[in-house]
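Let's practice the habit of predicting before peeking. Look at the sequence and jot down your guess about where helices and strands might fall. Then scroll down.
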Amino acid sequence: MRSLLVAAAGLLLLGAAPHLTPPAGEAIAIGTSYRLSAPALGGERVVNIALPASYAADKARTYPDLYLIDGGVDQDFVHIVGTSRLGDAWGRQQEAIIVGVETKDRRSELAGTTRDPALLAKYPTAGHSAEFRRFLRDMVKPFVAARFRTNGKDGVIGESLAGLFIVETWLREPDLFGAYAAISPSLWWDRESLSLEAGALVGPRQAGRRLYLATANEGADMQVPVDRLVTALGRARDWCYAPRGDLTHSTIYHAVSPTALQFLFPPQTPPDPQSGFEIPCSRKS
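Done guessing? Here is the structure:
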């Protein structure tokens, strides 16, 4: 009984203790947000820019650009900036300017056109990926080139519907970016129409445009359009297919993004083999 009373008294004393005022803090900034006009997309879009750690110190140095689809602060911006900074520190990849492009209506902005009545009934705004590509080409890329020290090389990364957008861009407008990383692309969209067209779209236009394709274990039905795309890739050069059957749609992005960034921006000096920084490809060219 006495021990219970002592414990209760201690709790009362703790509860009565004054709250300590924390010392003055300082905000942690990882980037800067800009609002760009995007009339075709229904208004403005936020573009988040994170500069490399060395950017301020070396005024003469230029950098490649990494365009991140779904690049809002509450989307994938923080994740990819952290991944890139860690890759920089380990010499796994080149330092890059991160350009996070926010999306709002992802099925409108990232998915291609569809005539599927079921999809249109469920997602009536869907099918305007070409408009989002135009926004990147005509607004975002000129904005970045005019304001930051870019070296003319760039890459793009995204997952799920953003991965679908990236595959579609590589197939239909490959000169928009220099290198592509599509993580678990939603190739099921529009009854797998993009993979069905891939064989006719892969050709000389993709020359010099590298592609990294990573997929999770999402079931046999989801694997069908992936296999169809990989077959079409056999006509291209400089691509890597990395199936990850040990991962799910929910876990693959964080797991493979370091490898994807290494593929997009390989370091000038190859990493020490003992570091384990390999780029495993089930199939490649």
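How did you do? The chain is about 40% helix and 20% strand.
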